[in-house]
């Protein structure tokens, strides 16, 4: 880039000062244009790895899954790759299936109950830990344990604890004189049992995100509210909660996406049983595709896609709400 | 809101990328992948691949040593991979789709008909594998449309383990258990003596159906009619046991492993389980015995056969089948069969080796009898219809045991589902 001082001497009659300004303006105009030229290529180069990655590991599997759900696959046509295109027949089949209604309802109950309790308990703990006290860091770290454990470990532990015959939960109930409950083997209880386990596993996530959200709220607002005579309860509902709204929204959205697709906990604890009493769309999708001796890939993929679609819809709703809040 | 705009732009880019990916994959055929796999195999020369569902065995095990030995005899190098059994079906289907199946596939017997129907397996007519020594009831699981698609490597099945101490205390002589009535009477005595009756696995998967079948078949029911009076009788037997507390409620969620763990506590009089638990039975620390599962009115009930078939998947280069045939014949030969089945804790598929097994270990006598009475799940010409019947059956089982439906209602519903599924 040329320095203005190096511009040729102005011809007579023109005031140097004006020339310099004009040159500066020209440079200022030209330079970004040139930078955009090379910069664009560099930009694409930086983008390329992530685009390739997205294509290979997200777009292609997604495309294959959609393709699977639109064809009539039998084991024979799966091997030969000549499955006939049947449009939405798999979706129609899945929706008409007797398992669909209960599975959808269980998914709603499981998701809503999990989110509500995870969030409420997570928030309560976050507020509790926000007032730093002795050992609070240690205690907070302990709360992270469910999050750090492999799901197979925590789910197996829950399933032992809730065992009808030898589980510790029924032993405790028996000690206080309550009849044993068939947590995992009664159609009335199995869905609640897996939900309880999922809530326990989800609390740390809510705690961590909401705790960091709380720290982002400037303390002087609380002080001002306190000076104005707001009680602790009022300060929570009128100051903390509204200011935490963006963090709460993203926590709930992430929680929703995560909970919709929970599979391992249910599969390990009840296999969706007894007789589908704890089957959700996620476990049903797996069972259709892999859970029997004869895989039905098409319907399995269709159920999976319905789940993706549901998560996508909520994601879009979230963006919409965010945009409206941003505009307001 | 700049960040949002950026987000939207990224989303558009993502969509564009998706479209490109769709276009690309739609254009590319599968021939590229196939030829690549073929080339890499040709470069390997005399390397033959074997897949089996025994991931518990490593290279130092008798099983893998045998595979290597058979390879050496056939003049080739054997490359063996062990997969989890539930994983193996889909792995095999996917490999066949990609055109690079293993040369020899050892696979769970009810899966054979599925793979055969998919056109993945060669028949023993094509590969000239001799199956004449195998007992017909074991070979049945590998038969489809008049052809046989492999040879059983060994068989296991179910019987009743009993705890001698518990039965002694309750005053029950195990020899008196001859039919359902005497078994139920024994359970009643055991419960009265303060111990637990029987445990089995009624989980809502294929394992549950596997455990239920000896009772179902033992009542004289057939898989083509789930809600026959015999079928209802079998399910009512189980349901009554749970209702009366002769069997624990946890059976609804039991796999065969958790059911074994219950039996191993020493609290239970009986446990329905398989040959494969024999080694564990010795570790329980109590005296145990084994009786065949009784049929409703006496005699041994036909239990379903477990165990794998050795199969030869279709190769594009059919000349490879010649070596595969040698490998399979080696694995199934009389001498090797004894080694393999001892290693796997299986009963051999031929009468000659069965007799040898009993001679070496008299404890196996009851198992040999059980295997001789056993029946393939995909037999009776059911083939790939079996999985479509098995699923409604295990659901009915769970519905009845958990009390949400009566055995009759549950099986009637199951029959409706199964009938429409197999059409």
Structural commentary:
With about 325 residues, chain A is an all-alpha fold. Chain A folds into 2 domains: about 5-65; about 95-325, MetI-like (MetI-like fold, Orthogonal Bundle), CATH 1.10.3720. Chain A is built from 15 helices and no strands. Chain A has helices at about 15-70, 75-80, 90-95, 100-130, 135-145, 145-150, 150-160, 170-175, 190-215, 220-225, 230-245, 245-260, 265-270, 280-290, 295-325. In chain A, helix 4 runs antiparallel to helix 12 (about 245-260). Residues about 1-15 of chain A have low confidence and may be disordered. By secondary structure, chain B is an alpha/beta fold. Chain B has 2 domains: about 45-150 and about 310-345, D-Maltodextrin-Binding Protein, domain 2 (3-Layer(aba) Sandwich), CATH 3.40.190.10; about 160-305 and about 380-420, D-Maltodextrin-Binding Protein, domain 2. Chain B is about 50% helix and about 10% strand. Chain B contains 19 helices and 11 strands. In chain B, the strands form 3 sheets. In chain B, strands 2-1-3-11-6 form a 5-stranded mixed sheet. Chain B has a 4-stranded mixed sheet with strand order 8-9-7-10. The N and C termini of chain B lie far apart (about 60 Å). The relative contact order of chain B is 0.16. The interface between A and B is large, with 45 and 55 residues.
Give me a quick take on this structure.
In chain A, 73% of the residues lie in helices and 0% in strands.
């Amino acid at each position: 880039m040329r320095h203005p001082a190096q511009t040729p001497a102005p011809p007579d009659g023109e005031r140097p000062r004006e020339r310099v300004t004009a040159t500066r303006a020209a440079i200022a105009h030209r330079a970004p244009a040139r930078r955009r030229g090379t910069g664009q290529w560099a930009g694409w180069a930086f983008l390329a790895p992530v685009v390739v990655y997205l294509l290979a590991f997200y777009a292609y599997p997604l495309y294959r899954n959609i393709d699977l759900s639109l064809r009539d696959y039998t084991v024979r046509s799966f091997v030969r790759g000549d499955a006939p295109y049947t449009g939405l027949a798999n979706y129609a089949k899945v929706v008409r299936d007797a398992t669909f209604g209960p599975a959808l309802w269980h998914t709603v109950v499981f998701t809503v109950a999990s989110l509500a309790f995870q969030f409420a308990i997570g928030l309560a703990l976050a507020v509790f830990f926000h007032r730093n006290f002795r050992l609070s860091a240690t205690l907070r770290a302990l709360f992270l344990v469910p999050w750090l454990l492999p799901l197979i470990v925590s789910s197996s532990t829950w399933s032992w604890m809730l065992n009808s015959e030898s589980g510790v939960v029924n032993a405790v109930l028996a000690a206080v004189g309550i009849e044993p409950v068939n947590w995992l083997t009664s159609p009335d209880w199995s869905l609640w049992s897996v939900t309880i386990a999922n809530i326990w596993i989800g609390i740390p996530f809510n705690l961590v995100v909401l705790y960091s959200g709380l720290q982002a709220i400037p303390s002087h607002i609380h002080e001002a509210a306190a000076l104005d005579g707001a009680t602790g309860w009022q300060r929570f509902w009128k100051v903390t909660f509204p200011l935490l709204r963006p963090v709460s929204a993203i926590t709930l959205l992430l929680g929703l996406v995560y909970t919709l697709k929970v599979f391992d906990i249910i599969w390990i604890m009840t296999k969706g049983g007894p007789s589908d009493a704890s089957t959700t769309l996620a476990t049903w999708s797996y069972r259709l595709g892999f859970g029997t001796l004869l895989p039905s890939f098409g319907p399995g993929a269709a159920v999976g896609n319905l789940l993706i679609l549901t998560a996508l819809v909520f994601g879009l709703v979230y963006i919409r709400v965010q945009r409206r809040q941003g505009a307001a | 809101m700049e960040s949002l705009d950026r987000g939207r732009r990224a989303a558009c880019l993502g969509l564009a990328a998706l479209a490109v990916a769709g276009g690309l994959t739609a254009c590319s055929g599968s021939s590229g992948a196939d030829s690549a796999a073929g080339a890499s195999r040709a470069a390997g020369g005399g390397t033959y691949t074997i897949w089996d569902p025994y991931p518990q065995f490593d290279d130092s095990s008798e099983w893998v040593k045998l595979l290597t030995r058979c390879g050496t005899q056939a003049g080739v190098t054997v490359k063996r991979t062990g997969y989890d059994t539930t994983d193996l079906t889909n792995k095999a289907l996917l490999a066949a789709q990609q055109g690079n199946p293993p040369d020899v596939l050892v696979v769970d017997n009810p899966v054979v008909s599925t793979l055969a129907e998919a056109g993945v397996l060669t028949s023993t007519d094509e590969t000239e594998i001799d199956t004449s020594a195998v007992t017909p009831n074991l070979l049945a699981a590998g038969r489809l449309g008049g052809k046989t698609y492999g040879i059983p490597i060994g068989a296991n099945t179910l019987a009743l383990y009993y705890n001698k101490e518990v039965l002694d205390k309750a005053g029950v002589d195990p020899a008196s258990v001859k039919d359902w009535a005497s078994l139920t009477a024994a359970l009643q005595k055991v419960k009265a003596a303060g111990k637990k009756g029987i445990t089995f696995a009624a989980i809502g998967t294929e394992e549950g159906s596997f455990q239920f079948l000896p009772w179902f078949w033992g009542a004289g029911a057939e898989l083509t009619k789930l809600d026959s009076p015999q079928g209802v009788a079998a399910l009512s037997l189980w349901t009554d046991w749970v209702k009366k507390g002769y069997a624990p409620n946890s059976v609804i969620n039991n796999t065969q492993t958790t059911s074994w763990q219950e039996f191993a506590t020493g609290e239970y009089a009986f446990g329905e389980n398989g040959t494969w638990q024999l080694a564990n039975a010795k570790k329980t620390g109590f005296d145990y015995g084994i009786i065949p599962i009784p049929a409703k009115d006496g005699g041994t009930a036909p239990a379903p056969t477990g165990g794998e078939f050795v199969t030869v998947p279709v190769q594009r280069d059919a000349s490879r089948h010649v070596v595969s045939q040698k490998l399979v014949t080696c694995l199934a030969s009389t001498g090797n069969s004894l080694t393999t089945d001892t290693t796997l804790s299986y009963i051999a598929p031929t009468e000659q080796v069965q007799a040898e097994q009993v001679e070496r270990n008299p404890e196996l006598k009851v198992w040999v009898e059980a295997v001789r009475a056993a029946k393939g799940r995909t037999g009776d010409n059911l083939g790939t219809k079996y999985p479509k019947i098995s699923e409604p059956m295990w659901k009915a089982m769970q519905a009845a045991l958990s009390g949400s439906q009566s055995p009759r209602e549950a099986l009637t519903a199951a029959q409706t589902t199964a009938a429409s599924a197999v059409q």
